[in-house]
Write a structure and sequence with these properties.
Layout (H helix, E strand, L loop, with lengths): L1 H13 L3 H17 L4 H15 L7 H6 L10 H11 L2
Helix pairs in contact: 1-2, 2-3
Amino acid sequence: MDAAKGAASVQPQVGQSTPLLLQMARSFALCVAGDTAQKRQYTDQALEALRAATREDYKDAVALQTDPDLASIRQEAAFQSVIDKVKSR
């Protein structure tokens, strides 16, 4: 998928930028919905980017829970774990 290739290619330059990491999570999550052959890989990459984006002081759990681009990974236990961590801040 082009979105996954694009996200992967910019990953080294993203650093700890929360907005860019969230965009990477969205890109990989969109790929989950469109590609069953690499679904697990894209899911893992989306969740990894989401964890990195919310690692510090990110507090907007509602934005993550309602972002339509993240819908494909919302059922994952790791997604709920991120939400729980964000809500606890």
